[in-house]
Model the fold of this input.
Amino acid sequence: MRTLRTPTLLMLGAIACLLFGATSRTNAARPASVPQDPRALFRHEASAPLDITTEPLAWVDTGSTLYRISYASSGGARVTGQLAVPRISGKLPAVILMHGLPGTAEQAMRGVGLGHARRGAIVLAIDAPWAQRGERPSFTAQDSIDQVQLIHDLRRAVDLLTQRPDVDATHIAYVGGSYGGAMGTLFLGVEHRIAAAILFVPDGGMVDHVTNRDGTPTGPLAALRPTEQQRWLAAMRPIEPIRYAASIRTPALLVQNGRRDQFVATEDAEALHRALPSYTTVEWYDSGHGLPATATQSRHAWLAKHIGTRP
Done:
């Protein structure tokens, strides 16, 4: 498990201890340290050392080189992922890529990221904290800690890209699918250096995903005791992505959903669409959770228009 040391993450540790009775090294944090505005949980030091390590991977995509990458994040944590760098000179646009659930940075890179790299973007795909541990969300206090840590990791990804001499810092995009799409709403709500973003097959977040529209638990949440359900919901609701949709300032935003999605109900997708800025472009497809090739083509055209990749 990653060590959490910053005041921001100590605040979240205090929330976890209060709500779940968890035992951890953050028990010393007093309840008074919990911020009234949950956005305080996502503040980070953009100038902190990144301590980047890279390792070329044996498999390389035509036209780009693929690396395994690690860098420092908030609280003494390290982020793992993959980096694809096109063999093109000059400053290039960049894409931060977030995988689904379950999923990994490697899967996202091979499934989506290399397509963006072939079109001239430097692509950085990162692993969610639970993916680094080879786990999934546990419906315990760890979920809230992981979700805040993920946003710090993504913000540090922006720091990393803006410091690269081969990246045009004014043309950085975020692309996230499914879980990565939902977390993108939270990320964009607190990070305003992103020029364009694509969220495909997202819903409003983990709370939205495991509750009905009337708030009753479903899926794995329904299997917990009522007291455990309420504790988890109380910890996750303040950081539910849809709550941050109105704070998004990203100039160009594309959202794609499927009408027959077996994992994201139409009404959940529509609720997210209503919460997003009015300038958001929404595309519906007659498909399930896996969108058709036309959706992929639309994403490439969107990035070509807004950050200058090749269509």
